[in-house]
Design goal:
The structure holds two protein chains of two kinds.
Chain A (H helix, E strand, L loop, with lengths): L3 E6 L5 E6 L7 H7 L21 E4 L10 H10 L7 E3 L12 E5 L4
Parallel strand pairs in A: 1-5
Antiparallel strand pairs in A: 1-2, 3-4, 3-5
Chain B lengths: L1 E2 L2 E4 L3 H12 L4 E4 L7 H5 L5 E2 L8 E2 H12 L5 E3 L4 E6 L5 E5 L4 E4 L1 E4 L5 E4 L7 H4 L18 E5 L3 H10 L5 E5 L9 H12 L4 E3 L3 E8 L2 E9 L2 E6 L2 E4 L3 E4 L10 E2 L2 E3 L13 E3 L4 E2 L7 H19 L10 H4 L1 E2 L5 E2 L11
Parallel strand pairs in B: 1-9, 2-3, 2-10, 3-6, 10-22, 12-13, 12-18, 13-14, 21-23
Antiparallel strand pairs in B: 4-5, 7-8, 8-9, 11-19, 15-16, 16-17, 20-21, 24-25
Classes of the chains: A alpha+beta, B alpha/beta.
Amino acid sequence: MSDVKIIIIDREGVEHEIMAPTDMSMNLMETVKAFELVEEGTFGICGGMEMCASCQCYVLSDTELPEKEDTEESLLLDEGVEVKENSRLSCQIPITEELEGLRIQIAPEP
Amino acid sequence: MIETDIIIIGAGPTGLFAVFEAGLLKMRCHIIDALPKPGGQLAELYPKKPIFDIPGFPSVDAGKLIDNLMEQIQQFEPGFSFNETALTYEKLDDGSFIVETNRGTKIKGKAIAIAGGLGKFEPRKPEIDGLEVFEENGVEYFVRDPEMFRNKRIVIAGGGDSALDWTIYLSELASQVTLIHRRNEFRGALDSVEKVRALKHQNKIDLITPAQVVDLKGSNGFLTALEIEREGEKSTLKTDFFIPLFGLTPKLGPIGNWGLEIEKNSIKVNNALDYQTNIEGIYAIGDVNTYPGKMKLILCGFHEATLMCQSVYNRLNPGKKFVLKYTTVTGVEGFDGSKKVAEKAVVETID
């Protein structure tokens, strides 16, 4: 299993190109935190329990992602900051080979 | 002024278990927490969710774990200051501390253990002009004491578990309950959603969606009514209380200004020894601390609390040799006079 290239624009507008492992059962939120691209305590606050919207990101590339479920949509609309059409909760996106070339921007801090 | 041995900041699992370990060493504790009840993240964020990595429990619901911990520490008579935030600390000449809370409570102790977790939970507030005036004068972000809503008219705003659960609970106490959400969809446990639906059909509560509270009206400094906007139309709803439940965000709070070494929003500690911070006598245990290799797990907090208590005991009893005794050997003697003992073996012949 190979790593996938993901481009992440942090909250300061700085672009980072990282290689995310596909064999560690990690999701996109955990990957962002593992690479320390966000201030600890301001992103993925609930640990991935789908109970906050702090791991929100904007999907900027055409990459195919798992469908957005009702609970994710609902949480985004209820607790998300500056929610847009391309908003996703990064904790709901597992790192798979299909994510190669994904480009995302981390949404503002809640 | 409250006097104790260890002043604990945070009533989550780590802070609670520290009371037990301190009690074994005959030390008393007083706990400060910003929430209205014990449990920290477990009680506030995920009480009904199962935890699978507590040693000895293949599965335990978060809320149940807190209940168990409260039962375990009951014998050591911990003091609690709920709905309070530790604001400042003062170190006296003899090395003891006085911590003052935002409500003016003062607690004197021989050590401070910060078990703050992710930080104190701060409620997300609705964007309404003049909201601050009514805070605690009709506007409540936490249900501090359900009794204060008995026979009163209340309006709850929110779309998640908290809003649903409190609507259900308070519908039994309040004279009138209205639930408002800016969208039609609610998000929560199926059981809760169904109960609210039933209450609505039984006309026990009013449901206004999609709607938002846009203004507050009061008299003599106390809330009397809300202005609600629904699909462009405004209306007034008289009420005694407004409870916006829009989620909580943890913040390190005033502790961030105590001169502690903070890294990545966590407090640096000496993990080679006793989890003390850079300030002698102040410890940080559980999720709130950081050190190389730190894992933010409940079980790690339990371990750190134990070593912290040891260290405090040693500081208070310099020169006294400590003998590690097992609870199955010595039993547990509570401050309340209770005693837990392991049954002794008998020596008898069997005919």
